Amino acid sequence: MLQSVASSSCVRLIQSHKSTWYFVILLLGYILYLIFGAVVFSAVELPYEDALRQKLTAMKAQFLRDNACITEESLERFLREALEASNYGVSILNNTDANRNWDFTSALFFASTVLSTTGYGHTAPLSEGGKAFCIVYSVLGIPFTLLFLTAVVQRIMVYSTRRPISYIHTRWGLSKPLVAIVHSCLLGLLAVSCFFLVPAAIFSAIEDNWNFLESFYFCFISLSTVGLGDYVPGEAANQRFRELYKLGITIYLILGLIVMLVVLETFCELQQLKQLRKMFYLKKEKAQDRVSILEHDHLSFTPAPGRVPSDDKAHMLFSVSTLSSRSDELMIQ
Fold first, then answer.
1. In a designed cystine with 85, which of 11, 90, 124, 274 is the match (CB 3.0 to 4.6 A)?
2. Handedness of CA 307, 311, 312, 314 (dihedral sign)
3. Is 223 in contact with 256 (CB distance < 8 Å)?
């Protein structure tokens, strides 16, 4: 008897806090997913890191043996300066006038990566004024970019998603959820083809050291706004038409980001995903029954002409307040 009562109370407790339990499961799943990613990345990349570390150590030792006039301290100091400059986008290998990091097109590319929060990190402000301006520029520009992208996506969604789905649903009489699912899949395939596969093929043909996988990797990292910065186009020493190339990449990133947001918004409008999201949301509190009480400014009295003299306004206001107080008393009772 006690066990049945306890089990029924537990069931009622779980059902009354269903969204909380779903959220706890979601949180645990996200933590496990993070741990899973860390384990896989560590298992895959750690051997390559150790091999590269051993290779660099051997090359450094061989260089010191071949150049006995150079001390290890001076070599360490030189390499430290070179690596620090490389972190700011200034390479000692191809630091020529043709590959300036802060000409107009390169600065425009940097501004687009800052405002889109991609942030490759291959180029960073060197001066104190540049760092201060970057802070102010980002504080104002990132919300401005979000507002701009929201407005653009809202307008594109009308013509790319809502009207086609409504037209097919009305014209052919198909189920609207089914039409929405098929439309979302087709739109996703079109976006992947036009902004991932085709650009990856173009980048692999233009960039000398990139294969198709590395080019596709750059497209995904860029349009997902991860921006690791390990692959940045247009940084080769012999890059032809570098300024025009950088401008084209900037336009590609902006258009690609808009298309990705349109695709994501299209999938988010699916009824199945809406129901899935509601499982983890807090339920809205039900509006309690409220007693409608007439306020003083909602009462309007229109006296008949000739009955209320114009100089008897004080008496009329007193009567209105008396009626209101009586009505409040009746409502309370």
1. 90
2. positive
3. yes
254 and 116 Cβ atoms separated by less than 8 Å = yes
Q: What is the 3-state secondary structure (H, E, C) of 15-32?
A: HHCHHHHHHHHHHHHHHH
Tell me the pTM. 0.70
* pLDDT, tens digit (0-9, with 9 covering 90-100), for 261-317: 999 999 988 888 888 877 777 776 655 544 444 444 444 444 444 444 444 434 433
Q: State how far the Cα of 185 lies from the Cα of 266, in Å rounded to an integer.
A: 10
Residues 6+ apart with CB under 8 A from 195: 219, 223, 252, 255, 256, 259, 260
Could you give the CA distance from residue 80 to residue 90 in angstroms, rounded to a whole number?
Answer: 13
* Residues 102, 109: Cα–Cα separation, whole Å: 10
Helices in 224-332 by DSSP H: which ranges? 242-268, 271-278, 313-332
Q: Rounded to whole angstroms, how far apart are CA atoms 324 and 316?
A: 12
Q: What angle do CA 289, 291, 297 make, to 5 degrees?
A: 135
**Nearest one of 104, 113, 105 to 134, comparing CA atoms:** 113
